[in-house]
Design a protein that fits this description.
Oligomer: heterodimer
Structural class of chain A: alpha/beta
Number of strands of chain A: 8
Radius of gyration of chain B: 24 Å
Distance between the termini of chain B: 69 Å
CATH class of the largest domain in chain A: Alpha Beta
Helix content of chain A: 55-70%
Number of helices of chain A: 19
Strand content of chain A: 5-15%
Distance between the termini of chain A: 68 Å
Mean pLDDT of chain B: 78
Number of helices of chain B: 1
Low-confidence stretches of chain A: none
Largest sheet of chain B: 2 strands, antiparallel
Largest interface: A-B, 42 and 33 residues
Number of strands of chain B: 2
Strand order of the largest sheet of chain A: 3-2-1-4-7-6-8-5
Structural class of chain B: alpha+beta
Strand order of the largest sheet of chain B: 1-2
């Protein structure tokens, strides 16, 4: 065998093993969750009720804004220390009338700020409100939220407690998907939010660095908002992440409060999810480049440069690339050295099985109330075919027996050729599942899309669908496609569970 | 501490108000977080059981 071929083989094996790194990092992140009882910010919390301005950007939110204001008015928080500023971004529906009516109902507590020219994005709308709020010295803290989200009564005061520590600049809450009635998509998102918020942000608390303040729930001290320039970044599609990074670079801590619960309505369709996540994905590409001097610099005072945080960030950021690379390497190895391909795949497979069982079971236990509603979507998160592949790793003998039984009944023999074919299919599927999930997006608006859309997502996987969206975000960003603020459509169907 | 509860810490005005549930809520939050450590162990145990079953029963 030539040295060149040998080098190619081991390079391909290295690529396959590299695909296991995000899985190992995900396990590491989840193990950190278990340490949150030791490393948290509760020891520095004090009862603290700063004069809080709630800032709500609103564009055509007549369906939700009135109820949101009423709910905020009944928060478990001293009334005289709460004001609501709704920035109406040149709405064309009944939003201005609804806000005006609420301003009259709650005089001196609800303020209607009207922008005559809208459509410049959420950050520009927020900046309009921040200018007004910062113009006098009443405000000690500002809560930036979305028009549709519902705060549980105690949530604000559980967040403000952290600001009693002057070292903390911002606090975020646990956003839960609350669409009633939900559908398969909102339940997938419900599960995803346990992983991405309840779990990931707890682990980030342990590391002392937070990746992103939730757009619907970010509480800033006045000092912090002033330190980041008194405005929100308007140059990217990830203004929340930019604010989060700038807060920490300025030397203030960001804290996730997992017991402050906020309910939000998330997209109920693939198209809606695609629009929202494409924006987030492009924003993350921009942030990665914008803060290029931050990554993997452990000597920095802020923890953004820590190796752990860098690994977590880039494993999520590069996941689609690593998956496609995995699949391509395995397929190439299959034709060069099948035995080596199988051995490399076994390493990846075993890591996947351990990760799948650990993360799925732990996620459902982290938030058992939501978990009971979304456990099916949790199990099916990688997609039906990938679940079968994982099952084949967990219970090979019974599955082999079942496959024999089915194929015998159908008049087929499970020959060596079939087994080789299945191996190749498995290697291709690793990458192809992204494409199958993407087919759901194509199918959804067409005839039969109400059945085919979910079918493709269940078969291809919700996780692979997110990777497909991230891939599309890379491509759009590379092409320099126009940067639009595609607002997620809200219908007011969010509710707190009874 | 001033009349309205203004408590100055490092020049930064921190208003502490009556929050009778504060201690209980912090205790409850910490209890929940300790529970998560136990749940992590349960999840790890589940992985171990499945790997053992795979090796000796379903392998």
């Amino acid at each position: 065998m030539s040295a060149f071929l040998l080098a190619v083989k081991w390079l391909l094996v290295a690529f396959v093993i590299l695909g296991a790194v995000p899985l190992l990092v995900a396990n590491y992140q989840y193990l950190l969750v278990a340490l949150h009882f030791r490393r948290n910010h509760y020891g520095r919390c004090r009862p603290y009720f700063p004069r809080t301005a709630i800032l709500i950007p609103a564009w055509n939110e007549h369906a939700v804004i009135g109820t949101s204001i009423d709910r905020l008015m009944s928060l478990d928080y001293p009334r005289e220390r709460l004001r609501i500023y709704v920035v109406d971004d040149a709405s064309t529906d009944a939003t201005p009338q609804v806000i005006q009516a609420k301003a009259e109902q709650y005089p001196g507590r609800v303020f209607h700020l009207r922008r005559d020219k809208g459509g410049e994005g959420k950050a520009a709308t927020l900046n309009h409100g921040l200018r007004v709020i910062l113009a006098d010295d009443w405000m000690q803290a500002v809560l930036i939220m979305d028009a549709d989200v519902i705060y549980e009564p105690a949530s604000l005061r559980t967040m403000t407690r952290h600001l009693a520590d002057p070292g903390v600049g911002a606090v975020t809450a646990y956003i839960k998907e609350g669409s009633q009635p939900g559908n398969y998509m909102t339940r997938f998102i419900g599960y995803e939010y346990i992983t991405a918020q309840a779990a990931a942000r707890r682990s980030q608390n342990v590391l002392g660095v937070i990746a992103c303040l939730a757009g619907g729930a970010q509480l800033h001290s006045r000092a912090n908002i002033e330190a980041v320039g008194g405005r929100i970044d308007t140059g990217t599609l990830a203004e929340d992440t930019v604010t989060t990074f700038r807060t920490q670079i300025a030397g203030r801590r960001v804290v996730f409060e997992p017991h402050a619960t906020v309910w939000a309505e998330e997209p109920g369709s693939i198209t809606g999810l695609w629009k929202q996540r494409l924006r987030w994905g492009r924003g993350n590409v921009q942030v990665t480049s914008m803060f290029k001097r931050v990554w993997f610099r452990p000597w920095r005072r802020d923890r953004l440069g820590s190796v752990s945080f860098g690994l977590i960030w880039f494993c999520v950021f590069l996941l689609p690339l690593l998956i496609i690379c995995d699949s391509a390497s395995l397929v190439t190895l299959y034709f060069i050295d099948n035995a080596l391909a199988l051995a490399a795949f076994h390493v990846l497979w075993l890591t996947s099985v351990i990760t799948y069982i650990f993360i799925t079971s732990f996620t459902l236990l982290i938030d058992p109330v939501i978990g009971r509603r979304v456990w099916r979507q949790g199990v099916m998160f990688p997609g039906a075919v990938n679940v079968v592949i994982l099952l084949a790793a967990i219970i090979p003998a019974p599955l082999y027996w079942l496959a024999h039984l089915i194929l015998d009944a159908a008049g087929f023999n499970l020959t060596h050729g079939w087994v080789r074919g299945l191996e190749l299919f498995t290697y291709i599927w690793l990458g192809a599942c992204l494409g199958v999930a993407f087919l759901g997006k194509l199918a959804e608006p067409r005839w039969g899309g109400r059945v085919l859309g979910p079918l493709f997502v269940y078969v291809g996987g919700y996780g692979p669908l997110l990777c497909a969206i991230t891939t599309a975000a890379y491509l759009k960003q590379i092409r320099g496609a126009e940067q639009k603020w595609d607002k997620t459509e809200k219908t007011g169907k969010v509710a707190t569970p009874a | 501490m001033g009349q309205d509860g203004e408590d100055r810490q490092g020049g930064d005005a921190r208003v502490t108000g009556p929050d009778p549930g504060f201690d209980d809520e912090i205790r409850s939050a910490l209890r929940y977080e300790r529970g998560l450590a136990v749940k992590a162990l349960v999840a790890i145990a589940l992985v171990a059981v499945i790997l053992v079953l795979r090796q000796f029963v379903f392998g």
